[in-house]
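Input:
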Amino acid sequence: MPYVVGYNWVKRKELPWNQEKLLKNVEGAEKLRWRIVDAKGVVLGRLASHLSKILQGKDKPTYNPSEDAGDVVVVVNAKEIELTGRKFENKLYRWHTGYPGGLKERTAKEQWEMDPTVILRKAVSGMLPKNNLRKLRTRKLQIFPGPEHDFVGPKYEGVELVPYELPERNIRMKKRVDFLDHSKLPEEFQPLNREWYEKMCRLYQIGNPYPKPVEGFKSKGEVGKKE
Amino acid sequence: MARVKRGSVARKRRRQVLKNTKGARSANSKLFRSAQQHNMKALRYAYVDRRNKKREARRQWIIRCNSATRLYGIGYSQFIHQLAKSQVRLNRKVLAQLALSNPEDFKNILQVVIENE
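Output:
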C-alpha cells in the first residue's frame, strides 16, 4: 500500500485522572498478561480471528466465560495490514445516521487515509461475542498505526509485553501453488506481472527467485505511464 | 350445611409462594399475585436449566482441553481422535482438571497419545 499520507490519529494525552491507571476504563489491567503483535503484511481477517480468541481468554486452560481474563493486546504497524483482492478500493463501511436518506458509506481506502486503526478494530469487534463484555474487550485492544506504541516509560515498568506469533497457515490449495513451484518451470521463465507475483510469494511465504525485472517489458500498473 | 369459615388456609398457601420469591425485585417479592407469576417462571427455568447445566459444563471442558493442547501444537479434534485410537478412556472433565492441577500428567498423556499414531 504505497500511501504516504498523514492520518488523523491523535496521541493519547496524559490527563490527571489517567495517571494512576495503566489502561483507561479497564480495571485490573496490572494482573493481566500483555501481548504485542506486529501486523505488518498480515491479512486482516485472519489476524482478527486470532485476536478475538486472545481477548476472550480462550487460549488459556483457565477459561471461564463469566469472568473476563483475556489478555491486553497491543497491535503495532496497523497501517501495513493486507487486504486480498480489490477490497482496498471496493470494501464499503456503511452506517445510517437515523434520518431519512441517511445511509452513508466510505471505502476502505478512505478509512485507511483517515484512521487506519478503525479497520482492524471493526474486524475484531465483529468477531467477538455480542454480549456485555464486548465493549470491555475492545478497550483491551490497543492499536497503533506505526511501529511505536504508548506503553513505554516509567509508568509501565512492571508491564511485560510478550510477543505473539501467528500460528502457521494450513494452505490447502495445493493445485494453485504449482505455478510457484520453480523446479517445474523452464529456465527462461520470468514473471510478467511482477507486483502480483511478489504479493503471491509473500502470502505463501516463498522467497522470490526472480528479483530482476525483464528488460523492455512493462507490468500492468506501468503500461499507461509516461516517463 | 354447617357454616365453614375459610380461616387461614389461603394465607398459608400464599406465604409459601412468597417464601420462594425472597430477593426478587419490587412487587415480585411482596405482592402475591405478581410473586406467583414470577415463581412459576423461575421454577420452569430451573427445570430446564438443570438439563442445560450438564451441556454447558461439557462445553467448557472442551474449550479448556482445546486451549491446553494447542499450547503443545495440537488441536482438540486431533487430540480426541488419537485418544480414541489409543483406547484411553479418560473423559473431558478429568482432562480439563488435569490440565489445570497436574500439567505434567497432562503432558505425559499427550505424549503417549501422539506416539500411537
